[in-house]
Amino acid sequence: MVEKEELLEPIKFIRGSTRRRTPIEEELCQARRSPAYWWFKCLEASDEYRNCCALLGDGDLKETYSKFRNIFEYSHFDSWWLKHGRFLFIQEELKKVKAFDSETFRRSDTDKLILEIPLTLRKQTVMRQIGKELKKAYEGREINIQKNSSAKVKFEKSKIRMTTVELLLKIHRLRKKHPDLSLNKLGIRAGVELDLFARITNDADMDTSEYERTRRMTIAVSRYLKQARCLIANAERGVFPSLKETEPLLK
């Protein structure tokens, strides 16, 4: 059990925690705003993952279960995070610049750059020359921090905003609660805002009739529901956040 005043180990996406240990309340506040929270919520919305947990990890989602465990045992995200979740995202200390003297110098691998710095030069001159060497070393090299992370669970490199994830899960939840509600009314209840004038350049072409608004809302919510299903299906498989279509699980 984590005590309230305890300071917790650094986690990459917890702001400032890589420089110092973070008080528990501060970490919880940031964790609730992180992608980890919405991954948890996706699994919570998954009937397949609930079944997997009921079977103690047996089935197609056992690999995800081996990491996230039974999230339904916990009353809310905070409890799961402190007792289990946070340990998925702790990573080893980040690599640091090292100095090699003549005795410890050895051939480097392709992910390191060893520099010989003559200490007879002015510091400003050395820094300028280091900058030039680094520029050459990084040219054409794509840096994927998540790929190189030592954490047990890694996020996908994605442009999906967590506000979008929140909306998709809200629509998915409302559809399950109100299966007979029209897509138009579902979107209104979820607070979907449509840009009715998007891609319109001629005022004479603008159609803001009730029929047109209903049509656009129906199309938008249908697309959101499909994206929500993909989001949850990928989260089940240990991939988050991703809206890519997946093959259905074998029954």
Going by helix content, strand content and strand pairing, the class is mainly alpha
| Main sheet: strands, sense, barrel | 2 strands, antiparallel
Number of strands: 2
Tell me roughly what share of residues is in helical segments.
40-55%
Strand order of the largest sheet: 1-2
**In sequence order, what are the helices and strands, one letter per element?**
EEHHHHHHHHH
Mean pLDDT: 83
Number of helices: 9
In percent terms, what proportion of residues is strand?
Answer: under 5%
Radius of gyration: 25 Å
Low-confidence segments, given as residue ranges, are: 199-204
Q: Distance between the terminal alpha carbons, to the nearest Å?
A: 38 Å
The rough form would be described as: globular
What's the helix and strand layout?
Blueprint: E1 7-8, E2 22-23, H1 24-31, H2 35-44, H3 47-54, H4 62-68, H5 77-83, H6 123-138, H7 162-177, H8 183-190, H9 210-236
Antiparallel strand pairs: 1-2
3D structure, described in words:
There is one protein chain. By secondary structure, the protein is mostly helical. Among the domains are: 7-88, no CATH class; 162-236, no CATH class. Helices cover 43% and strands 2% of the residues. The chain has nine helices and two strands; from the N terminus they run ββααααααααα. A two-stranded antiparallel sheet has the order 1-2. α7 packs across α8 (183-190). The longest helix is centred in the last third of the chain and has 27 residues, at 210-236. It is globular, with a radius of gyration of 25 Å. The two termini are 38 Å apart.
